[in-house]
Automatic annotation (TrEMBL):
Coiled coil: none
Domain of life: Eukaryota
UniProt cross-references to InterPro entries, sorted A to Z: pH-response_reg_palI/RIM9, SUR7/Rim9-like_fungi
One cellular component term from this protein's GO annotations in UniProt: plasma membrane
Sequence intervals crossing the membrane: 12-32, 102-120, 132-155, 167-192
Protein name: Pali-domain-containing protein
Amino acid sequence: MGVGAFFHHIGTFFLFAATILLLIASISSPVIDGISILRVDQNAGYYTFGSWGWCFHNNGGDTECSRKMIGYNPADLIRKNDRDIDVSGAGENTSKALTRVMVLHAVGCVLSFIGFILAIGRGTATNFLSSLLSGVAFVVTIIVLATDFAGMAIIHHDANDSNNSSASYGSAIWCVVGAAIALFFATILLFLTCCAGRRKNKHSDTENKVEAARASRRFNFGRKKAAAV
C-alpha cells in the first residue's frame, strides 16, 4: 500500500469518526436523555439539554422529557425551580434562538456520512467529492459548535451564579468538538490524496502516450525497412 493510499484510509477513518460523533450529538436529549449538551443541577432535580429538546429528572426518580422539536427556551426552564437565576431578556432570547441552530448537528452528520461513503470508492472524482463534502461538513460543524457554546454559555454562567443551581457541559458538546477536529484532518488528507491521485494519473497517461509513440515509430521503421528489402 502506497503512502497516498495510507493517508486516504486515515482521512476516510476521520470522516467515519466524525459521523459517529455527530450522530451522538444528534441523538442527545430528549432522544437519549443520558446524552446532553448542557446539564443543570438544581435542588429539585436536574435538566439535560440536547439538540431536540430537554429532559428533567426530579429527585423522586421521575423523568419528564419534551417532545422532539427545533428550538426551545432553556432559560425559562431553569427559572422554574430556582428563582434566584436572573437571565436577561436579551440572554434568554439569544439562547432560545441559538437552540434552533442545533439542527445542524444532524446536517453535519449526514454530510459526513455521504462523504465517508464516497471516500470508500477510491476514484478520483469520488475522492474530490468526498473532500468537498468533508469541507462543507467541517464548516457546518464549526458553525453549530460556536452556537452551542454561545447559547449554552449564557445558561451555564447564570446557573452557576446562583447558590441553588450548577451547570456543566455534557458529553454531546465535546463530541462536536471532536467531530470538528476529525473533519479538519479528513478534509486536508482527502484533498491532498485526491490531488496526488490526479497527478499520478496524468503522469501515467503521459508515459502511456510516450510509449505508444515509440511503439508506433518502431512499427513504422520496421515497415519501411521491410519495404526497402
